[in-house]
DNA sequence: AAATGTATTAAACAATTGTTCAAAAATAAT
DNA sequence: ATTATTTTTGAACAATTGTTTAATACATTT
C-alpha cells in the first residue's frame, strides 16, 4: 500500500489508523466489531442503530468502533457493501457461466439463492433499504455486482427471444425469478406475525420452492 | 379525505419536490401534520424521521405534532395502520368476492394492485419495515386485513386443489402472485440506480405485467 | 530495562432528539 | 366587550447521539 502517498499524508492521523498493521494475531476486536455491526445494522437499520449498540453487541468499549472504523457511516458502508456482495455475487457467477444452458442456470440459481436466504433471511430487506438512500460508494458496488442486464444468462435469453424460441421477455423472466425467490423472505414477518404460518412451515415451503420455481419459470418460457 | 394521503408518484424525487410546495392552505393543522407525517415517514422510515422534520414538511410549529398526536410513536402507528389498510384492504375485497372465479380474481387483483403501487410505490418497503418491528397495535391491523389464508379466494383454491383440479399448492400460488406483483417495486431503486432501466421503461413494464402476470399464474394452475 | 508503538478506556464535547409547559394569540361563547 | 376555550408559539428539559481526546494498559522492539 502507498503509505507515503502525499494525498494520504495530508491527514496523517487518520492514515495512521487506516494503514495500521494487522500483524497482531489477536485482531479479534476489529473482527468482533464488524460482525456485531453486521448483526445490529441488519436487525435495526442504520438510523435505529447506535455506536453504543454495536459495541455492546461486540462486548467492547464503544470508543473502539470509531477507533477502528473512523465513523458509524463508514462502518455502515462497509457492512452494506458486504451485504450486497453476499446477495448478488453468488448468482453472478452462475448466470455468467458460458457452459450451462439457461434452464440449468435457473435450477442452480434457485437452489443457491434460497439456501443463502435461509441463512441470511434479513439480507434482502436490509439491502433494499440501503439502496433506497445509497451513497456513491454503495451504488458503485451495486453496478459491479449488477447481474440483471449484463449477464450471459440474459444474453442467452435475448438470443432465444429473438429467434422466437422464448415466449417471455427476458427482463420479465428475471423479474419473476428474483421476485418469487426473494419476496417471501422480505414479507415473511407478515406471514408469521399474523399467524398464517409458523417458521417450520415457512422453511419447508422454501425448500419446496427450490425445485418448484424452476418448473414454474420454465412454463413461462 | 384523500387530499394529502400518500400523494406521490413513481418518480418520487421529482414528485416529492413538486407536491411539497402546493399545500392545501385550507387544510387544518391536524390534517397537514398527518399528511406530512405520511410523506416523511414513508420516505425516511421511523428512526430517521424527527418530529421537527414532520413539522417542517407541514410548515407548522413543531410543538403542534405532540399537541395533536401526543407522541411521535402514536403518529407513526397511525400512519402505519393507514398504510397497511391502503396496501391490503383493496385486494381483500376482491379476494373475498363469492361471485367471481379464482381466475377472475387474479385478473382483478393484478390490475388493482399494480395501479395502486404505481401511485404508492414506496408503500411495500415501508410496510415491510414496519411489520418487522411492529407493536401489538399494528399486528392487530395486520390480522384484520390479513388476506393470505382466510380469504374466500384461498378457500376456492383449496377446494380445487383437493379435487386434483389445481396443480399448484394454494399458498405457493398466493406467494407467487404477490411476489411477482410487489417485488419489482421494492427493488426498483436497484434497477434504476444501476442504470439497468429508467423510470419510463419501468412504468411500461409494470403496465405489461398487469395482463401478463395473470397469464403466468394460470400456467401454474 | 527502556523506549516505542498499539490497544483500550473513561470522560467530555456539542448537537440533536422527543417531550413538556407556560405564555401568547386566536377563536368561540357568553 | 368580557370571558372562556382552543390553538399556536418559543423556550426549556433531560436524555441520547456521534465523535474527539487525553490518559492508561498492553505489547513489541531496541
UniProtKB/TrEMBL annotation, chains A, B:
Statement: the UniProt record of this protein carries the keyword Amino-acid biosynthesis: no
Instruction: Report the DNA-binding ranges.
Output: 50-69
InterPro entries for this protein: Homeodomain-like_sf, HTH-type_TetR-like_transc_reg, HTH_TetR
Q: Name one GO molecular function term.
A: transcription cis-regulatory region binding
Q: Does the record bear Transcription in its keywords?
A: yes
Reading the lineage from the top rank, the first entry is Bacteria
Q: Where is the HTH tetR-type domain?
A: 27-87
Q: Which UniProt keywords apply?
A: DNA-binding, Transcription, Transcription regulation
Indicate what this protein is called per its UniProt record.
Transcriptional regulator, TetR family
Q: What organism is this sequence from?
A: Chitinophaga jiangningensis
Amino acid at each position: 500500500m502507498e503509505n507515503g502517498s502525499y494525498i494520504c499524508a495530508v491527514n496523517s492521523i487518520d492514515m495512521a489508523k487506516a494503514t495500521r498493521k494487522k500483524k497482531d494475531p489477536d485482531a479479534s476486536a476489529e473482527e468482533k466489531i464488524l460482525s456485531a455491526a453486521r448483526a445490529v445494522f441488519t436487525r435495526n437499520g442504520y438510523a435505529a442503530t447506535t455506536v453504543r449498540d454495536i459495541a455492546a453487541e461486540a462486548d467492547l468499549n464503544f470508543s473502539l468502533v470509531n477507533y477502528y472504523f473512523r465513523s458509524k457511516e463508514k462502518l455502515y458502508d462497509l457492512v452494506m457493501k458486504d451485504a450486497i456482495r453476499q446477495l448478488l455475487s453468488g448468482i453472478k457467477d452462475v448466470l455468467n457461466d458460458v457452459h450451462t444452458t439457461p434452464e440449468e442456470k435457473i435450477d442452480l440459481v434457485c437452489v443457491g439463492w434460497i439456501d443463502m436466504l435461509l441463512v441470511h433471511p434479513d439480507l434482502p430487506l436490509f439491502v433494499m433499504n440501503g439502496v433506497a438512500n445509497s451513497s456513491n460508494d454503495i451504488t458503485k458496488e451495486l453496478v459491479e455486482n449488477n447481474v440483471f442486464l449484463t449477464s450471459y444468462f440474459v444474453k442467452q435469453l435475448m438470443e432465444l427471444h429473438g429467434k422466437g424460441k422464448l415466449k417471455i421477455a427476458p427482463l420479465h423472466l428475471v423479474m419473476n425469478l428474483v421476485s418469487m425467490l426473494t419476496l417471501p423472505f422480505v414479507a415473511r414477518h407478515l406471514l408469521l406475525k399474523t399467524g398464517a404460518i409458523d417458521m417450520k412451515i415457512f422453511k419447508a415451503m422454501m425448500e419446496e420452492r427450490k425445485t418448484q420455481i424452476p418448473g414454474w419459470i420454465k412454463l413461462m418460457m
